[in-house]
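Renewal narrative, Specific Aim 1. Our central claim is that a sequence can be written position by position from structural information alone. The example that follows is taken directly from our test logs and has not been curated for this report. It begins with the structure tokens describing the chain, in the order in which they were read.
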């Protein structure tokens, strides 16, 4: 297991978590994820393994459709930081672009068929 930390672009939303080494990425093709083109952790991070801090009310949540998935983003810079997936409440998939030192564009990517849910 490895410790990771990350933030939105402006730093108003910060997070850290403990998880396996990141050597691949997942991209969902649902209607919102395809628009933001975020590469996400290929594994889910349990809520107990994730620490989130946000300045004031910087952390906002967007829900649509079934209202089950929670797409979290920074209200200051607009960066999508992580999502609580519809099929796995109580877990997170983290935007790999928000993790310091990660080279997400060169990781192998698995496409998750979210548009069929």
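The sequence written for that structure reads:
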């Amino acid at each position: 297991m490895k410790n990771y930390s990350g933030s939105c672009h402006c730093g108003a939303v910060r997070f850290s978590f403990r998880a396996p080494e990141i050597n691949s990425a997942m991209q969902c093709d649902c209607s919102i994820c395809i628009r933001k083109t975020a590469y996400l952790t290929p594994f889910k991070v349990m809520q107990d393994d994730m620490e989130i801090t946000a300045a004031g009310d910087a952390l906002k949540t967007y829900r649509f459709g079934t209202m089950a998935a929670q797409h979290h983003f920074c209200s200051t810079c607009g960066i999508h930081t992580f999502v609580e997936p519809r099929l796995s409440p109580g877990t997170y998939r983290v935007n790999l672009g928000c993790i310091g030192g990660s080279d997400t564009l060169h990781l192998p990517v698995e496409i998750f068929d979210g548009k069929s849910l």
